[in-house]
Amino acid sequence: MNRYAFLSLAALLASCSTENNAVRTNEGADPVIPPRNFEILAGKPVESIPGEVHLKNVRQLTFGGENAEAYWSFDGTKLILQARHKPGEGDQIYTLDLATGEKKMISTGDARTTCAYFLKGDQKVIWASTHGAGPQVPNVPMAMRGKYGYIWGVFKDYDLWVANADGSDMKQITSEPGYDAEATVCPVTGRVVFTSVRDGDIELYSMEPDGSDVKRLTDRVGYDGGAFFSHDGSKIVQRSGFPKTQEEIDEYTMLLERGFVKPSKMEITVLDRDGSNFRQITNNGKANFGPFWHPDNKRILFVSNMNAKPRSRNFDIYLIHEDGTGLEQITFTDVFDGFPMFSPDGKYLVFASNRFNPEDKQDDTNVFVAEWVE
């Protein structure tokens, strides 16, 4: 995923019940067994925000720089995220131990990375990187942003890599021309869903963790990506662009040919795991992204600027039913809040935010975790 969305710059349970320290997932998924007496001690407690009734005992986990897209390990004891700490650096992949707070870089330190995720079993991880083409850091030229506004780079040198959880024994698993990134993992089967331009448009695909058995899931003009499986593995939620007029289609095609995409109008969509039954969930004409399934597999968390003032960087997290009803706002700051993901036991929510930044570091993005109050 393009990690900071609109900065200057959602895993694994169904309805949860606990029995003998094992949390039962939906039919077909393995039981998730949290370590006995595990406690999140990383970071420090921070104050609650008025109106955020679903979040309690909030802790800030990172402090300074750009930290985002933090996703849980399957055992619920670690996060994997991407971060950079100085302007001009490329994002790198880190793991964060939630018991000790130890943050360790596991990518090469070269080029640019994005969208890391633990593979099922937590022994290996997957992420996208451009380092196979050299150590240089690809960026969006300022001239392009000046002409077309905020755009993302879908850099052609992004490929997917799998490594041991400590970053050792890296192996490239995609080699098609163009962008391959945004990989996440099915909690039931371990299958990977990812975004690629290998067939000329930005479409959604799935494959086995070794890169075999690639299947295309979407086939429509416009961006489809940033996807996550439901906790029972039966459905996928993603963000989608909907260029409608010929002028919009022409601009989308032109930007994509140059390796860019304009994300200012994207909606949340859902499809079955085989790509069938594609349906649109939101319809507000704004920038909606970062969706993740609620543990009940019927509601979806997502990020949107639907209520932001023009030219504002304010994004909040929302909750909505799969049929598009019951919209509820979850975060209430006037800055960016995004990338929500439930912990494997459904007890916690991790998210990224610009909240609590000092005056001289207003653009910093940090990772937070909170207990979820249903």
Give a written overview of the molecule.
The chain is mainly beta and 374 residues long. The chain has one domain: TolB, C-terminal domain (Neuraminidase, 6 Propeller). The chain is built from two helices and 29 strands. It has helices at residues 142-148, 246-257; strands at residues 18-19, 22-23, 44-45, 55-60, 66-72, 78-84, 92-97, 103-105, 113-118, 124-129, 152-153, 159-164, 171-172, 180-185, 192-196, 203-207, 215-216, 224-229, 235-241, 260-261, 266-272, 279-280, 288-293, 299-304, 316-321, 328-329, 337-342, 348-353, 366-372. It has a five-stranded antiparallel β-sheet, with no helix packed on it. Strands 5-6-7-8 form a four-stranded antiparallel β-sheet, with no helix packed on it. A four-stranded antiparallel β-sheet has the order 9-10-12-13, with no helix packed on it. A hairpin with a 6-residue loop joins β25 (316-321) and β26 (328-329). The radius of gyration is 19 Å and the shape is globular. The two termini are 28 Å apart.
The largest pleated sheet is described as: 5 strands, antiparallel
Strand order in the largest sheet: 3-4-29-28-27
Structural class: mainly beta
Q: In the CATH hierarchy, what is the superfamily?
A: TolB, C-terminal domain
Number of domains: 1
* CATH C-level category: Mainly Beta
Stretches where pLDDT is under 50 for at least 5 consecutive residues are: 1-29
How much of the sequence is in beta strands?
35-45%
Radius of gyration: 19 Å
Would you report the number of β strands? 29
General form: globular
CATH topology: Neuraminidase
